[in-house]
Specification:
It contains seven helices and eight strands, in the order βαβββββαβαβαααα. It is α/β, with parallel strands linked by helices. The model has no long low-confidence stretch (mean pLDDT 90).
Length: 227
Amino acid sequence: KVLDRLTPYSVKAKTFDILLGQPRPHRDLIYDYITNNNLIHQVLMTYISHENRITANTNNTGWIWEDQGLEVLDNDLQWTVSQVKYYGQQMSLSQVVPIQVYNQTAYSLVAETNFDNNYVFFTEKTVKPILARRLFILLSHRYALARLRELGFKTFGDIIDESYDEIEAPIFRHQAALEQMKWLCEQDQQSILDRVQEITEHNFNVMYGTNWYERFSTPLTNVLFNR
């Protein structure tokens, strides 16, 4: 019921949330793209522990805390993997869906942890906008969007140009993805939100309705036991 506090299809004050976390080359690219294209007023962006690039639009605190259900266990919390309690359940901070952030922003720009082309590895960074019924642009591995579709999810190729997913060189792939973010910043929010609803509801249902443990453990077991 925590997710019921979200308002995914209402117009928001800002266009994108960009929660960059710890330093990575593709996150430097995002930060520089936002600042160089004067998009800072359209996004809610954080970049933790990166010299002078600590935060933007967050009063230089480095964090945007949930105002309900969250208990910080470490007063010197510096990492998103640090432990917190959320409605009594102990978990890492990164597992908490950022409701306050999502209710201020229309879409998500996801900078995944890894962007190596040799494999696809999704984390909670991709899961959270799916749970929150949001359009997202994914700066990640080559063919990451294709892999999501193989898992049963829908992506947003009827709304934006997702051919960036096929570009081999990460810097050019991510640059192309950022151009789609810029394009969305120039569009009428409500018209886009109306178009994404069928996709995002489908994705939510796939995420919630799939036994992911069984989905991944069964093939692994078959390989290990040569079945």
